[in-house]
Amino acid sequence: MTGDLVVYTAPYAFGSFIGEWGPTMRKVMAIDAATIVPGHGPLMHDKSYLGLLADLLESVAAQAKEAAKEGLSLEDARKKLDVHRFREQFAHGDEQTGRAFDGFFLGPGFPRAYREAKEGPLHDET
Fold first, then answer.
1. Which of 95, 2, 103 is nearest to 54 (CA)?
2. Residues 6+ apart with CB under 8 A from 78
3. In the predicted model, what is the mean pLDDT of the chain?
4. How far apart are CA 92 and CA 85, in angstroms?
5. How confident is the model at residue 35 (pLDDT cuts 50, 70, 90)?
6. With 90 as the cut, is the pLDDT of residue 121 above it?
7. What is the rounded distance in angstroms from the CA atom of residue 53 to the CA atom of residue 112?
């Protein structure tokens, strides 16, 4: 059981710890489980969705670190963020799922990843 670390069809990042969640997802993937119970969505019997989610989390964390290193503002970092490929893989062309990806993951998740990149590990959920 993963809780809200795994939410299907689009990930959920309110109160997230993006920098920690990527490595945590890799640890979840290492568990020899026949069935994965996500926080939301159907039971899963393979780890392909988990791999996609781990790749997304790691990519967002890395891009936030690079933007912070370059001294970009959050607004400029957001403009430079490239998650188009991931959005398509999660949404599969479905507009509603694409909006969920934007609103439930990118909206809250990238600012937190950027804060982590600038401040270090976060200790709050806002």
1. 2
2. 110
3. 96
4. 10
5. very high
6. yes
7. 17
3-state secondary structure of 78: helix
Helix, strand, coil percent content, the chain, rounded in steps of 5: 60, 10, 35
Tally of domains within the chain: 1
Residue 53, burial from CB neighbour count under 10 angstroms (0-12, 13-18, 19+)? buried
In-domain check, residue 124: no
- Domain of residue 57 covers 3-119
Instruction: Tell me: pLDDT of 75 over 90.
Output: yes
Query: Is residue 37 included in any domain, yes or no?
Result: yes
pLDDT of amino acid 125? 87
Look at the block and give the residue holding tokens 């694409």.
98
pTM of the model: 0.95
Residue type, 71: G
In a domain, 125, yes or no: no
Residue 83 CA neighbour count, 13 Å, CB half: 29
